[in-house]
Amino acid sequence: MLLSPSPRGADLGTRVREFIATVITPVESQYFADLAQARASGNAWKTLPLMRQLQEKARAEGLWNLFLPAGHGDEYAAKFGTTGGAGLTNVDYAPIAELTGRSFIAPHVFNCNAPDSGNAEVLLRYGSEGQKRQWLEPLLQASIRSAFLMTEPGVASSDATNMQATAIVEGDHVVINGCKWWSTGVGHADCELLIFMGLSDPNAHKYLRHSMVIVPRSTAGVEVVRMLPTMGWYDEPHGHGEVRLTDVRVPLSNVIAGPGRAFEIAQGRLGPGRVHHCMRLIGLAEHALELACRRAVSRTAFGKPLVNLGGNRERIADARIAINQARLHVLHAAWLLDTHNLSAINAVSEIKVAIPTMAQNVIDMAMQIHGGASLSDDFPLAAAWLHARAIRFADGPDEVHRGVVARFEIAKYRGAES
Amino acid sequence: MLLSPSPRGADLGTRVREFIATVITPVESQYFADLAQARASGNAWKTLPLMRQLQEKARAEGLWNLFLPAGHGDEYAAKFGTTGGAGLTNVDYAPIAELTGRSFIAPHVFNCNAPDSGNAEVLLRYGSEGQKRQWLEPLLQASIRSAFLMTEPGVASSDATNMQATAIVEGDHVVINGCKWWSTGVGHADCELLIFMGLSDPNAHKYLRHSMVIVPRSTAGVEVVRMLPTMGWYDEPHGHGEVRLTDVRVPLSNVIAGPGRAFEIAQGRLGPGRVHHCMRLIGLAEHALELACRRAVSRTAFGKPLVNLGGNRERIADARIAINQARLHVLHAAWLLDTHNLSAINAVSEIKVAIPTMAQNVIDMAMQIHGGASLSDDFPLAAAWLHARAIRFADGPDEVHRGVVARFEIAKYRGAES
Amino acid sequence: MLLSPSPRGADLGTRVREFIATVITPVESQYFADLAQARASGNAWKTLPLMRQLQEKARAEGLWNLFLPAGHGDEYAAKFGTTGGAGLTNVDYAPIAELTGRSFIAPHVFNCNAPDSGNAEVLLRYGSEGQKRQWLEPLLQASIRSAFLMTEPGVASSDATNMQATAIVEGDHVVINGCKWWSTGVGHADCELLIFMGLSDPNAHKYLRHSMVIVPRSTAGVEVVRMLPTMGWYDEPHGHGEVRLTDVRVPLSNVIAGPGRAFEIAQGRLGPGRVHHCMRLIGLAEHALELACRRAVSRTAFGKPLVNLGGNRERIADARIAINQARLHVLHAAWLLDTHNLSAINAVSEIKVAIPTMAQNVIDMAMQIHGGASLSDDFPLAAAWLHARAIRFADGPDEVHRGVVARFEIAKYRGAES
Amino acid sequence: MLLSPSPRGADLGTRVREFIATVITPVESQYFADLAQARASGNAWKTLPLMRQLQEKARAEGLWNLFLPAGHGDEYAAKFGTTGGAGLTNVDYAPIAELTGRSFIAPHVFNCNAPDSGNAEVLLRYGSEGQKRQWLEPLLQASIRSAFLMTEPGVASSDATNMQATAIVEGDHVVINGCKWWSTGVGHADCELLIFMGLSDPNAHKYLRHSMVIVPRSTAGVEVVRMLPTMGWYDEPHGHGEVRLTDVRVPLSNVIAGPGRAFEIAQGRLGPGRVHHCMRLIGLAEHALELACRRAVSRTAFGKPLVNLGGNRERIADARIAINQARLHVLHAAWLLDTHNLSAINAVSEIKVAIPTMAQNVIDMAMQIHGGASLSDDFPLAAAWLHARAIRFADGPDEVHRGVVARFEIAKYRGAES
After folding, report:
1. Best of C309, C314, C316, C365 to mutate (most A CBs within 10 Å, chain A)
2. Which of D228, D389, D407 would best serve as a mutation to test chain C binding (most C beta carbons within 10 A)?
3. With contacts defined as CB-CB under 8 Å, which chain C residues touch A311?
4. Most buried of A334, C318, D119, D151 (most Cβ within 10 A)?
């Protein structure tokens, strides 16, 4: 159980840290000012020039597409710019994801942001050569953006088998109908690729009914009904959309890996994706704890620095403990994914339950130490807190993942049943 | 310990409930649509026509200024439109506040919203006849709006004695300098009254140094530097502002109750205000629980209604228990305010600690049952959750109130010290 | 909603408080020393002489059988010694139960201890005149003791319909077979009355299958298999036993209220009983908080009194808040039992969920402030903590009561189901 | 960060697991029956014959003194029977400690129980050759037992500098006076070695005032005043005593490492000791979770196995998550102790805060699933729960360790102070 990165992973981590500190952080507030201005002028749904510049610098330094996995991803890592020309293990990438998670824009700078990274991984693992050439390559160059269409407004999507949108094979085409929402990325002007998940054969086994289909954004019948606010935020330029698909026709060859394999693909997509989410949240929690400590030692009330008031030290200690446990937990899941793929399903569900709530709580504590200031955008805390909360739904709500963990645990004792 | 309302209070409660159900609720989504449109056209910082209409109806029915307290407020209740022509006790008003708290606009409709109601109460209890005529009467007619300027960006305002803005008596004037923020209401076009709290005599006893001063919004030297987002929301039309005051001169007669009495006044203002906040939050939590139950019985996942999945029933039970305890707790504090004024300080601090967190947790649970939908504005849950969180800062953060409660508790045993 | 006691209730409360302070508390440590000695000499399973003396004093002062309910209990209260000669409402008795709960022996001194008080109530409400004469009267004189035989070792007794012990009517007798445990009181030398609950008619409606039967302890076939330790304690002199009943025959007239009515009776027995348990736990929690405060102001570490270290003040505040909410909650349930009997089932379940856990947590906090000393018997904290924990099982575990609360809550929205 | 054991460690772990399963577990209930009988006959304060037999078997298999540390402990591991003849790293020993922690007697069987193992480590690291010969060797042969005298009843011992018992150097002797309690092991008939910590020089630096002194149990002036119950249990045969020392004189050579070094030694003793405590608690929590799952799949209520009722699955999932995080956390602290000794102080404090509470909560959940049965001694749950609770005091209460963690965290930002 080796939970520390390889020398190459460690070196990339050092360089990512340095890049964030010297290149990204100094312009982060400028980025948000530019974004606010773009928003005011109705022009926020595209990559800002400053982001393009940052991406170019990152790519030039080989800090690009670092999420590409060792093994499957080596060829593409070599071709699309990662230093050392090979994909990283999850144990190598996890600490890097943590570093990028401290900042709201860093994942985009390194082209390692959801959902593009997850969509790239789907194409990498399950796509045909043609699909990779047409969609994966531009994604890895950040020349296009993508969205993943899974959740539906009409049903409890926590149970993915509830999905009702259809992807019916008709001869050498697939015809798609239905409504999706929380389609992250669909608002972006460069979003050309939609990966759609829908019901193809209602009579098949529960996990063999659905297909995953590539739908070019420009196909007739695709309509973005509205962009959804997330607790008031639209998260431009990518955003989250509600998408109606009406008699959308695409060639049969757009089905990824063939009809009926959507669940298999989703499972493969979501394991590393959840590790990334969790590690980024650990970075966010670390950032919040750092802000809390800085504030607590520098502000005074009732004649003492805040750090010496009431339970503040205890809360800081509890936050440190929670973060440290969380990091080891995620690294262990990453290591299981790297080494024991199949047995990692429950480990991934475990971290998906535990880490977002941990982050929400740590950030809540940091807010409380900042007082009302934390509600404003003078600090990144409010946005961090909302983000951690939202991740408790993304890729399956806490309750569903607890169910997975419990099922594995109970299975050990099924022989004990009377 | 009679915790239920008088017949008159109960009757007003029934009528408020009916008014909300038949007059407010049916147009609430229209109101927010109007507000969104006003926001889009840069015109959101004033009372919308629909709100004016609702206020007129409420006033016509005598459901107006219900917050006015029995005793001090009777004359004004008679004059400004409350049915029955007298103020209500806290025990009578608390259930009404709960009802209005279910809706984000109801408190405004009944002219019972913070900070106007609290500012009215300050004038009522401590204002001169002239001050009442000039400021209280238009407030009670909703012809002007007001703001309360206390918190400062530069210091930990949880310790109010930290306040550094000054209100220096110079002859028959007061000269004000400093910077305030989280001045709720200051964004409103009708906001004409600022009640400012500042340091007058640094050499006086800690609680006798500050004065509370009426500052007309239009006075030279008053500048709203910016409106502050609260976790991304600007809460138009009233909003929360950062206000710089530079050599602002007002007549000495604008000092409420005379120099040095700000803490005394603030204490009187905040007791009932905190009861109102807490009761409104209980209404909000009830609303969230209702939505959670409705969703849980009507949505299906894994072959069962959500209500029968995992721990959902237990969470619903825990929410019911928490709300019921909270309501009794606040009613008891209200009763203490009505009957034992002085001994109610700790009771008010107790509820200020307990109720916002309770509401935040209940709403968080309701969100989780709604899944991703709860993040959108299709449901009032995200806004409710943010509101409950924000109230954990308003009128003193949790930690300060815990300190008050502990101080009272420990005082019982001081004789036991070695 | 009048939650304070009547003048008579208040007066009795004052006298109970005084009696505990001046008569019981001064000899409480002597009582436990006597008990330890009795235990060492194998002689602990009977009422100690000191307890007899205390009981006589209490009875002489009319502080006796105070649990007897207003209405049904008036005649017996008059006859068996309660001052004022009438039963008390739940709202009157609840604060008295709180006072007695501060001490481990006070409930016995006032003849208000479980399970005797509950058994008395069963006989009072459902017993025949003959049953009352034979069993109720000596119970109210404390000349006999009793036990309640419900829980079974072989099944999950949280679901009472699981019960498998049988009470079969054969002509004019009932024949009983089965095994019960956690039969509190069965260890006492004076325990002459067992109230047994068993299955009479497996074909009847689920809640009409069981009967409640009076079984004299001396009947052939009744065997106490063992006394059970509760986390190591045997709770002499009453204790908790495992009882095997083999072909036990009693006259049909021993069936309380007739065959098939056990669930109806149990429900009536348990409502007030749970209120008593909860109020006594509030007394215990208050006692723990008092000890915590006394210790925290009088001990020093790291150069400060404990009360000024870390989060201790916040924990004290949270304990005060939790206790105050709990007390109001139980008083409200008591008031509902007094005034709205039927609608109180969920209120009773609510307090049964909330209060024992509250008490466990408050006592845990008090222990932590005492350090290792709290583990010893120099303080009543360890015993208090174990007791609160155990009550989370008594009269139904938390989970079952949460289920009841949820069922009531959800029932409001059943129309909303799709 | 390699958190898995070496091949030798893994092999020893496998053999320990096998030994527990085949040799210890089958006789564990017999052991407790023997102990109960010994207790009944007043003969419980010595090693039972069955324990001697188990110890001989363990020693014969080289599963003996496994706690001895790699490096310092190699010679003794070779001489006193550990297979492979060398001490183990903390990372190697931690999983073994977890296995022994599942059972209440296994640590004694392997001669790895507190406080003997900790005392052995003190002698090993800081003792003179003579001290090792006289005391360490018989300890490692289990021919004597020992106690550690640190905590005092008269002061808050959470602040160790509070200690008031004295160890005054007078010529070539040390004279000891004072009162200690919670001296674990002092009740055992074979307890010959007391390691005493007391104040030697009140004028020295705070951490250089105290000395650690070897006091033979038989020295004149040593009196065991009483054995202390821990929540009702006396934990025979070792127990926890209150010890009065009156003018106890021992040679100066009995001072370990010389006067004034007690804090330095205690720190070295406590690091690994806390890792052992925490890993054993993880074993205990795993055992409780296993029992909970077995019960939950085999018992039925309301027509379903318990595992499918209410929130039981979620609680099982949360327990699994908490245990897994805890294990990684302790392994990481063990690895830091092995590799970065100095930086491990805060890591050790972190686990000391987090793991006992985790264990207490998991065991509490398991109890709740067992219902009232868990209170009896039919299951090891009550004892496990009390043990986990007690460990929250042992080696420093939670609050003190939180303080250490916070101090390290805040130190990073001291430059930020204004």
Report:
1. C314
2. D389
3. 310-311, 314-315
4. A334
**D403: which chain A residues are within 8 Å (Cβ-Cβ)?**
313-314, 317
The nearest alpha carbon in chain A to D2 belongs to: A2
For D10-56, the DSSP string reads: HHHHHHHHHHIIIIIHHHHHHHHHHHHHHHHTT--SS--HHHHHHHH
The string of pLDDT tens digits covering residues A136-174 is 999 999 999 999 999 999 999 889 889 999 999 999 999
Residue pair C90/C275 in contact by the 8 Å Cβ criterion: yes
Q: How many CB atoms lie within 10 A of CB B15?
A: 15
Q: How far is B310 from chain D (nearest CA, A)?
A: 5
Q: Give the minimum alpha-carbon distance from A315 to chain C in angstroms, rounded to a whole number.
A: 9
Q: How far apart are CA C218 and CA C373, in angstroms?
A: 44
Report the pLDDT averaged over residues B20-37.
96
- Inspect the interface and report whether the beta carbons of C317 and B2 lie closer than 8 Å: no
Query: CATH number of C7-113: 3.10.180.10, 3.40.50.1010, 1.10.645.10, 1.10.540.10?
Result: 1.10.540.10
Query: pLDDT at position A340, please?
Result: 85
C154 touches chain D (CB under 8 A): no
Phi, psi of D249, deg, nearest 5: -115, 125
| B211 vs B250: CA distance, rounded Å | 13
Q: How far apart are CA A333 and CA A339, in angstroms?
A: 10
Task: Count the Cβ atoms, other than its own, within 10 Å of residue A412.
Answer: 12
Residues 392-411 (C) with a CB less than 8 A from some CB of B: 399, 401-407, 409-410
Confidence band, pLDDT 50/70/90 cuts, at residue C340: confident
Domain residue spans of chain A? 7-113, 146-260, 263-416
- Check CB contact of B382 with chain A, cutoff 8 Å: yes
Identity of residue B60 = A
- Alpha-carbon distance C322 to C289, whole Å? 11
Which residues of chain C from 355 to 374 reach within 8 Å of chain D, CB to CB?
364, 367-368, 371-374
Rounded-to-integer distance, Cα B341 and Cα B337, Å: 4
CATH 2.40.110.10 fits D146-258, yes or no: yes
Chain C nearest-CA residue for A318:
C311
DSSP B204-222: S-GGGSEEEEEEETTSTTE
CATH number, span D263-411: 1.20.140.10
Instruction: Provide the pLDDT confidence category of residue A418 given band limits of 50, 70 and 90.
Output: very low
| Optimal mutation site among D161, D164, D228, D231, interface C, most CBs of chain C within 10 A | D231
User: First and final CA of chain A: distance in angstroms?
Assistant: 37
Q: Does domain A263-416 bear CATH number 3.30.70.980?
A: no
What residue type is assigned to position D248 of the chain? V
**Into which CATH architecture does domain B146-260 fall?**
Beta Barrel (2.40)
Q: Is the CB of residue D314 less than 8 Å away from at least one CB of chain B? A: yes
- What span, in angstroms and rounded, lies between the C-alpha atoms of D406 and D409? 5
CATH number of C146-257: 2.40.110.10
HSE-CB at A107 with a 13 A cutoff on CA atoms is 26
Verdict on whether the full-model pTM lies above 0.80: yes
Contact B292/B319 with Cβ under 8 angstroms? Answer: yes
User: Using CA atoms, how far apart are residues A146 and A142, in angstroms rounded to an integer?
Assistant: 10
Task: Provide the H-helix boundaries in D197-311.
Answer: 262-298
Residue D14: partners with Cβ closer than 8 Å, 6 or more residues away: none
Which of B283, B230, B227 lies closest to B104, judged by CA?
B283
> What are the helix (H) ranges across C20-136?
25-40, 49-60, 74-79, 90-101, 106-109, 116-126, 129-131
